[in-house]
Specification:
Number of strands: 0
Shape: globular
Strand content: under 5%
Radius of gyration: 13 Å
Oligomer: single chain
Number of helices: 6
């Protein structure tokens, strides 16, 4: 979901906070966000979309349909945290729905 917050090339604090709150609420494991953010920051922009789809495909294999719907609602919370949906954010949301074959 960090890629969603980065899709407009700016990590807005509102979007970042939504991601952090979600992770804190849903995961007890130590997630190395600094390492993940560093990876995403150096990931070339032309590779971000492929990485997003790859992670979505991996999540699909370990999740239930209800969990995927929860993530799509969360994804919309991230995108709309700054009260606007940019073109690249919309594209990633559509990719998520298409990858998971959601209506």
């Amino acid at each position: 979901m960090m890629l969603l917050s980065m899709s407009d090339n700016i990590i807005r604090s509102e979007e970042h906070d939504v991601v952090i709150d979600y992770l804190n609420d849903h995961f007890n494991d130590n997630i190395d966000l600094i390492k993940e953010q560093a990876f995403l920051t150096v990931l070339p922009p032309e590779e971000r979309e492929n990485h997003f789809v790859e992670v979505a495909q991996q999540f699909y294999t370990i999740s239930t349909e209800d969990e995927r719907h929860t993530i799509t609602r969360f994804a919309m919370d991230v995108v709309m945290a700054d009260e606007s949906m940019q073109k690249n954010e919309n594209r990633l949301i559509n990719l998520l729905y298409d990858t998971w074959d959601l209506v």
